[in-house]
């Protein structure tokens, strides 16, 4: 494994490439990445890098976001089939139909969505900035896609009327308040952190609601020693690496996203050698999608 990691580092240098990885991907991929982060951090880094090539270790919508922000760069997704089931729960046609029913209502779209859906939206958001984005809009009604749970979380933090969309993360959505409370009862004194993709009743019993990188920051600064983690299990690796003296308990082992685990070191080597797996967003979609993503970044 070490030899493969060295090979990746050499290839990245040779090709003037940067490797970005989401906090959920396999540990060995996080180890070799130039930057690990949440969706917001990764989009900002993708926009700012001088590298000519971005290798994105995450899922398809993340590589698309990098391509939207950096059309002059080559964006590679080592396994092009790595997708996000929640992103597939809103399509261009279904969103266009809903917009027609809600004329004048701005659309706030979670970055976990296709470029074509972003192109039909007024502004994007991530789990790290959703409340800020919704509250910064002048309108007093918004339509949020595709995550119903994230939208309900935003609704609990705003006076605006929030129109929901029936999308959800198939992993975060499996966590129930009963299951979370049972884990809490077993570990009295532990702090329960939940991702806003979890159902509202779970967020109600959470001590902290944060994006993945928000959780990493919170734990680092906390004086507590035990944490219950209500998000995809991949985050346990960076949490344990960065805080070896602290204890982390997954709220549920069912929160394991297969798509986030698809990219292996060998796939990264192959894509750097062949440049297969390029993700490029056509200009007629990229330009309106960029407007929605840039509006979000400007609000951070
Ligand atoms: P964040 O890392 O932005 O919290 O996103 C979570 C997620 O589910 C990404 O697919
Ligand atoms: Fe999509 Fe959920 Fe997987 Fe994130 S964890 S990529 S939201 S299915």
TrEMBL record:
Q: Does the keyword Hydrolase apply?
A: no
Instruction: Please state the Enzyme Commission number of this protein.
Output: 2.5.1.72
Q: Which cofactors must be present for this protein to function?
A: [4Fe-4S] cluster
In which pathway does this enzyme or protein participate? Answer: Cofactor biosynthesis; NAD(+) biosynthesis; quinolinate from iminoaspartate: step 1/1
Gene3D superfamilies, sorted:
NadA-like
Q: InterPro entries per the record?
A: NadA (IPR003473), NadA_sf (IPR036094)
Cell division as UniProt keyword: no
SUPFAM superfamilies in alphabetical order: NadA-like (SSF142754)
What's the protein name?
Quinolinate synthase
Q: Which organism is it from?
A: Desulfoluna limicola
């Amino acid at each position: 494994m070490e030899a493969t990691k060295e090979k990746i580092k050499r290839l990245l240098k040779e090709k003037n490439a940067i490797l970005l990885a989401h906090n959920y991907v396999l540990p060995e991929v996080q180890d070799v990445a130039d930057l690990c982060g949440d969706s917001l951090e990764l989009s900002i880094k993708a926009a700012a890098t001088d590298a000519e090539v971005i290798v994105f270790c995450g899922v398809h919508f993340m590589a698309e976001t990098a391509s939207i922000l950096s059309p002059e760069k080559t964006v590679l997704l080592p396994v092009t089939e790595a997708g996000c089931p929640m992103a597939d729960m809103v399509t261009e046609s279904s969103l266009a139909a809903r917009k027609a029913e809600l004329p004048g209502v701005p659309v706030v779209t979670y970055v976990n969505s296709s470029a074509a859906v972003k192109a039909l939206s007024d502004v994007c958001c991530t789990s790290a900035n959703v409340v800020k984005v919704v509250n910064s809009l002048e309108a007093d009604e918004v339509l949020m896609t595709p995550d119903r749970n994230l939208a309900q979380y935003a609704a609990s933090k705003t006076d605006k009327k929030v129109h929901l969309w029936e999308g959800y993360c198939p992993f975060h959505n499996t966590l129930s308040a009963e299951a979370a409370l049972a884990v809490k009862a077993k570990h009295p004194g532990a702090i329960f952190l939940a991702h806003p993709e979890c159902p509202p009743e779970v967020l109600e019993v959470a001590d902290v609601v944060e994006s993945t990188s928000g959780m990493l920051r919170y734990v680092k600064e906390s004086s507590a020693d035990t944490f219950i983690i209500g998000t995809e299990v991949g985050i346990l690796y960076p949490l344990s690496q960065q805080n070896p003296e602290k204890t982390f308990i997954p709220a549920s082992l069912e929160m394991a996203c297969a798509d986030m685990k698809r990219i292996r070191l060998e796939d990264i080597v192959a894509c750097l050698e062949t440049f297969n797996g390029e993700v490029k967003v056509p200009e007629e979609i990229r330009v309106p999608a960029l407007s929605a993503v840039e509006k979000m970044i400007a609000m951070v």
